[in-house]
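Students often ask why we bother encoding 3D structure as a string. The short answer is that it lets us treat folding as translation between two languages. Here is a chain of 293 residues written in the first language.
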Amino acid sequence: FLYTPAEEPHPQPQPVAIRRRSFFRRDTQPPPPPPPPPPPRRARVDEFVGEVQLSPALAAVHHGVIEEGTARISVDGSVVLERGSLTQNSAFQLQLAVHNADVEDFQRAVALHYPISGTVSLSVQASGTPSKPHGSGQFALVSGEAWGRPIKLLSSKFTFAGRAAHFDEIELHAARGEVAGSAGYDFDDKVFAFDLSGESINLADVPEIQTARLPITGEAKFTVKGSGTLNEPILNGHIQVAELTLGGEAIGSLNAEAETHGRHMKLTARSNFPRANLALDGDVFLQGDLPAN
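And here it is in the second language, the structure alphabet:
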């Protein structure tokens, strides 16, 4: 462990609020102070072992191991400092890996707080600067729950650059049903893209479509592709529902498609009901309150 103290910073002049009285006897108020910074995240660990190098120009950790509960995190990285301080242009490199750790223990070790439980494995390689990071990795969550939804398996490879992230080889296995595909989003340009497909989706496990008076059951499979922005999306998809029931009454099967042409989405649906037929054709304007015909 080697540390060289940085030079003492020069004292900075403190701002002084000036109150003046104008010719018309109206007071000039100083501008409101900026909002306070968010409180720092606090990580908790049981043990840390590693080689640490620290100087006014560099901070580095090699062969580091962080342990918190069942979580064992391997870390290796370095960052260039400016007179002992981290800046938005400080170049860094980082390698991090965790294998079969309890999610709650892992979140405590990295100061995260999300409603997720289960067992997680993760690997990340990153570099760049705090303002322009980039990297790649992969993760897997097994035997868990996320935002109240049970999950058998959720895994994906991912890449990121700046404030844009892309996920490939997504696999989601729920209690009954599977989803696979890819998805990405750019937080700066607010642009998204996804290509997903699902099999054996039990509609009874989708609370967003359920009501107390009219419960819905059935088995669905779908394909959906989308891109664009939230204000001007492009969406194309197909869904097929078998053994559909409404309120406990067997209905039959249903097929529906959506195709986007410019700012208009064309919807079609056809049924295969034993005692009736349903045909639906409509258009949705993909802006504002999504008016439909």
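Translate back mentally: Residues 44 and 73 are 13 Å apart (CA to CA). Keep this in mind for the problem set.
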